[in-house]
Amino acid sequence: MEKELRKAVQDAARAYYRAVYGEPKELTYIPASGKLLDEEDLAGMIDATLDMWLTAGRFNDQFEKDFAAYLGVKFALSTNSGSSANLLALSALTSHKLGERRLKKGDEVITVAAGFPTTVNPIIQQGLVPVFVDCEIGTYNINASQIEAALTPKTKAIFLAHTLGNMFDMQAILDICQKHNLWLIEDSCDALGAQWNGKKAGTIGHIGTFSFYPAHHMTMGEGGAVVTSDPALYRILLSFRDWGRDCWCKPGVDNTCKNRFNMQLGKLPFGYDHKYTYSHVGFNLKITDWQAALGVSQLKKLPGYLLKRKQNAEFLAEKLADLTDYLILPKVAENVRPSWFGFLISVKEDAPFTKQQLVEFLEQNGVGTRQLFAGNLLRQPMMTENDIALRIKNSGLLNSRNLTEKDFALLPNTDFIMNHTFWVGTFPRLGKKELEKTAALIHRFAGALK
């Protein structure tokens, strides 16, 4: 009876979806990003609801298994957001279980200022020193040729995002990490499905992170993941994600280690319940099974989503190719197959119009635009209104509150991105009609101001 009732409820959910959401509405405003959901997504979430498990359960187990298999890694851990995934990844590298390789307060981490703040925030939150290196124009990724000069004996890790799905120079950065024994965290929140030499983004460094926010390549609503193929790192990541506990039993399971009452850790009494023993100052960053059920369903459709994003980016590149006197279009590094989160455009400094003018024109005419997130993080109030220790390239230690224009001048391309760069959408809901409108409006604007 239960099986038949469950099927009837799911079928009703599918019918509800078709009746209420089945006919997609015409887009009067072309958003820069968005989600795609269907009746199977809703049916999956309803199925999880009927379990009444509430926390991470069988759907989460399935998602972590499926996601690891898709990427070709040994371990995947779901998190409640991509930002939490970044916090988890960086925090794991501070674990005492890593011995001499652990990150300690005052150690330095190479990163960039052109991007989303939650790539940099964990560095600061863990008492580490972010070291900012400039970016390339076109790929909008770190200029790898500047990294060596920025290193000091305190440099212990590189933490970078693949900008809008276009991967950074993996070979150069892998060589640097190997030469100097540095950790590498790939923030792949905007790059799910991107590849370098046939290897997927997030699987090449020590730890990879992903986001499933509605704007991203697939969605859980809120949600994210960390991945690794290192069993020791996996155990540490699991601990930090789940309150910092030493135990690795899944919820509702006891004594996986077979030594639950047969250990002595810290200064606890011998035999203190391992289920309530904590080895790290951790968090609770788990998801619910509703989110996981949506992730299981969305992952099945991911290849189609990625193909559509690729086609949309190629369409825009072709349609805007004749405007390169005024615009800089995206460039792709060697051996990279991007997974476009959006289509980046820079307005050249000698163009007869500014980025601001073009962006305002597009928005006024129904085309959504986005900045490259924070533009230059060092100019954001989060930095200028706080006392944060940092370095810029090979500078000495600086205080974020006291940065001057001379300091900002060390990152000229980052400031260029802030002043000249924006992006428009490539997400799968957009079709030829929407992309043609976007390209036509850019042509119209550029032609009027020649």
Describe the structure.
The chain is α/β, with parallel strands linked by helices and 450 residues long. It has 14 helices and 16 strands. The strands form 3 sheets. A 9-stranded mixed β-sheet has the order 1-9-8-5-4-2-3-14-15, with helices on both faces. Strands 10-12-16-13 form a 4-stranded antiparallel β-sheet. The longest helix is centred in the last third of the chain and has 31 residues, at 289-319. It starts with a helix and ends with a helix.
CATH superfamily of one domain: Type I PLP-dependent aspartate aminotransferase-like (Major domain)
Point out poorly predicted stretches: none
Looking at the structure, the CATH topology of one domain is Aspartate Aminotransferase, domain 2
What order do the SSEs take from the amino end to the carboxyl end, as H and E?
A: HHHEHEHEHEHEEEEEHHEEEHEHEEHHEH
Radius of gyration: 23 Å
Instruction: Give the end-to-end Cα distance, rounded to a whole number of Å.
Output: 72 Å
* Main beta-sheet strand count, sense and barrel state: 9 strands, mixed
Q: Taking strands numbered 1, 2, ... along the chain, how are they ordered across the largest sheet?
A: 1-9-8-5-4-2-3-14-15
CATH architecture of one domain: 3-Layer(aba) Sandwich
What top-tier CATH class of one domain fits best?
A: Alpha Beta
Q: Percent helix among the residues?
A: 25-40%
Strand content: 5-15%
The count of DSSP E runs of length 2 or more, i.e. the number of strands, is 16
